[in-house]
């Protein structure tokens, strides 16, 4: 993603730089490169008039508190709209799996076994997956892993000849974890229900339970 460097700069405490016309001119050389496939999806339009009608007031007549509530409501609606039409890409899914591995060194099989679990959950929850993940997930993840090695996000150990490739091991470069976090964010929202469910089950701390045991109850 072109904004990767700017995101990391802000994450480390740097100030966001205002865009300028000169930045557009300088970006020409970047736009000539092939970065892969892009997905553009649209959600149903959000009507500001409808939101105002719910409050029974126009923006001009709102108090500061009411205006803040409207803006916060609109912000949540926009974020949810973006999440609902987002596509899970191989880069995002691989980044999430890499950051969740328990062992420091891993093989492609270790990584892909976890990704298969993630994909089964995504299929079941009706998430939109990139075409490459649908057609040949193993090849898509291998290409991403090779790209992450090339960009030095991940370190590769052992040779790549036919006798040793199956034993090749990898390790996430600690200093590059924030970049992987950036790419992981593209798909993390789809796992939020599973995370809350898992945490609730763990909180029960029992071997057997019913669905009603982990559903919210009114006091």
Q: If you had to describe this structure to a student in words, what would you say it looks like?
A:
This protein is mostly helical and 219 residues long. α6 (90-100) packs across α7, α6 (90-100) packs across α9 and α6 (90-100) packs across α10 (177-184). It is built from 12 helices and 5 strands. The protein has a 3-stranded antiparallel sheet with strand order 2-5-4. It has a two-stranded parallel ribbon with strand order 1-3.
List unreliable stretches of 5+ residues.
none
Query: Which outline best applies?
Result: globular
Structure classification: mainly alpha
Fraction in helix: 55-70%
- Rg to the nearest angstrom? 22 Å
What is the number of E strands? 5
Order of helices and strands: HHHHHEHEHEHHEEHHH
**SS summary, helix count:** 12
Largest sheet: 3 strands, antiparallel
Strand content: 5-15%
List keywords for this structure.
globular, mainly alpha, single chain, 12 helices, 3-stranded antiparallel beta sheet, 219 residues, 55% helix
Fold blueprint:
Layout: H1 4-11, H2 21-26, H3 28-31, H4 48-55, H5 64-85, E1 87-88, H6 90-100, E2 105-106, H7 108-125, E3 128-129, H8 131-135, H9 137-150, E4 154-157, E5 169-172, H10 177-184, H11 192-204, H12 211-214
Parallel strand pairs: 1-3
Antiparallel strand pairs: 2-5, 4-5
Helix pairs in contact: 6-7, 6-9, 6-10
């Amino acid at each position: 993603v072109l904004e990767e460097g700017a995101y990391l700069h802000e994450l480390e405490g740097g100030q966001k730089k205002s865009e300028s016309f000169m930045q557009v001119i300088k970006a020409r050389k970047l736009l000539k490169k092939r970065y892969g496939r892009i997905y553009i999806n649209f959600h149903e339009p959000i009507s500001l008039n409808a939101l105002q009608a719910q409050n029974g007031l126009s923006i001009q007549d709102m108090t500061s508190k009411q205006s803040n509530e409207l803006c916060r409501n609109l912000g949540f609606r926009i974020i949810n709209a973006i999440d609902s039409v987002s596509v899970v890409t191989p880069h995002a899914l691989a980044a999430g799996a890499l950051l969740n591995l328990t062992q420091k060194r891993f093989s492609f099989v270790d990584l892909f076994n976890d990704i298969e679990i993630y994909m089964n959950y995504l299929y079941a929850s009706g998430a939109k997956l990139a075409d490459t993940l649908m057609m040949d997930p193993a090849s898509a993840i291998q290409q991403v892993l090779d790209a992450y090695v090339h960009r030095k996000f991940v370190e590769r150990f052992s040779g790549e000849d036919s006798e040793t490739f199956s034993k090749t091991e990898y390790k996430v470069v600690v200093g590059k974890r924030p970049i992987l976090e950036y790419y992981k964010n593209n798909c993390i929202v789809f796992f939020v229900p599973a995370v809350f469910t898992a945490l609730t089950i763990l909180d029960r701390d029992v071997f057997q339970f019913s669905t009603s045991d982990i559903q919210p109850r009114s006091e």
